[in-house]
Amino acid sequence: MPTIKQKKAFKEVLKGSTITGAMKKAGYSESTTTTTGKLTNTDGWKELMNKYLPDDKLADHHNQLLNQKRLDYFVFPKNMEDEEIEISVKEAGLKVVNIRMSDKGKMAFYSTDDAMAKKSALDMAYKLKGSYAAEKQQNVNVNVEVTATSKELEDLRMKYEEELLNKYKS
């Protein structure tokens, strides 16, 4: 059963807060908010997620995103025949929805996949499945005794910083 704090944090997340921000607003201690898993790995949080964001509902909406269409148009010369326009649009791999006259010319409307919605849906799916490679991060601490001038130190710092960046980029 979710605690009062878990319910408050969940409501904040639904309003658009990050997990950390939601935990702070719900009254969790500062030290607890640095490890969001202390909230998201609890049975109470999982119960809230299953109740308000059930997998089948998410899958339906996710599928809608993957199949989202948008309406777009080409403009053709006013004197071009509709049949000719339809052939041109079909050659682009699209199907005409409607042709209308405008001050620009004949507008041939067509339906196409919404690439941004599809990209967003795929990105979400890959993240949820853990298919993205983990980000590489490496911290290096170097302790040295210094007896050089400011200019010499700055030159050394820049040299070693560049070497380290080149070494750990891959």
Question: Care to describe what's here?
Answer:
- The chain is α+β, with helices and mostly antiparallel strands.
- Among the domains are: 4-62, no CATH class; 69-117, no CATH class.
- Helix content is 55%, strand content 13%.
- It has helices at residues 4-14, 19-26, 30-33, 37-40, 43-52, 55-66, 82-91, 115-129, 150-168, and strands spanning 69-76, 96-101, 106-113.
- Strands 1-3-2 form a 3-stranded antiparallel sheet, covered by helices on one side.
- Strand 2 and strand 3 (106-113) form a beta hairpin.
- The longest helix has 19 residues, at 150-168.
- 9% of the residues are buried.
- The mean pLDDT is 85.
What can be said about this structure in brief?
The chain is an alpha+beta fold and 170 residues long. The chain has helices at residues 4-14, 19-26, 30-33, 37-40, 43-52, 55-66, 82-91, 115-129, 150-168; strands at 69-76, 96-101, 106-113. A 3-stranded antiparallel beta sheet has the order 1-3-2, with helices on one face.
